[in-house]
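Consider today's protein:

***
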Amino acid sequence: MTKTNGTPTPHDAIFRQFLSQPDIARDFMALHLPAALRDICALETLKLESGSFVEDDLRQYFSDVLYSLKTRDGSDGYIHVLIEHQSAPDKHMAFRLLRYAVAAMQRHLEAGHKVLPLVIPMLFYTGKRTPYPYSTNWLQGFADPPLAGKLYTADFPLVDITVIPDEEIMQHRSMAALTLLQKHIRQRDLAELADQLATILLMGLLPVQQVVSLVHYMMQAGETSDAGAFIYGLANRAPGYKEQLMTIAQQLEQKGRLEGRLEGRLEGRLEGRLDVARALLENGVDPDTVMEMAQLTEEELAQIQH
């Protein structure tokens, strides 16, 4: 049994003792790799890597070792061997092998490499049931393996909004406003989209909360010369959302007045800057912005936050 303090099982210990020897590891690979894979591996470059991909709660059932190597064309590769030493085989072992292979690829990228490595998963089975009863093709774990094969061996769906014409986006129903904004949020003054946004809002397809969220997103991430006027304009052209939009516009207008007061008092004494900071906080401006606008230190801001 595996100890809770992390002591390895006898299965794990002897497996690692043998497979950590380069000559033994090469014999293992030469014996058990399928010929087509063996032919692309430069086994003379085999090197034992540190670390494990097995979850902590499964260490008493599975052990693993990872070897790096070069392929015959000079590319980076790995062979990941998982040893299963529980008495009952894991029905989804093929999926587990895939997950661990992907984890090895991720570690390779995190090490600074730019290209995904070839990772060959191998299962070394020592359980009581014989022969091993499950497929090692992870696609067989799906209800429809052929369909899964088509999905996972082809390009994944891509929604590239940068190439979709605005006229087409306008037909995207409840997704139209978000898609249009995210397409242009970095490139254009959002006021230029006022007509299109008003047309979308007039369709009445979005709940009020979603419209409010969109407007806050525009204010946070977009550019417009007069945000308040822009929101007032939308409010007047989209009566279904007028109340909420007017409230946001008024808040922006009030914030503008507070910023004007700030400009006139920044050169004054600390107490004056603290007064302005209090007003900004009361109107919902976040503390970091208040600290920057009022030119306060963290300690000075803390004085008025309690």
Observations:
- Residues 1-6 have pLDDT under 50 and may be disordered.
- The chain is about 50% helix and 10% strand.
- The radius of gyration is 31 Å.
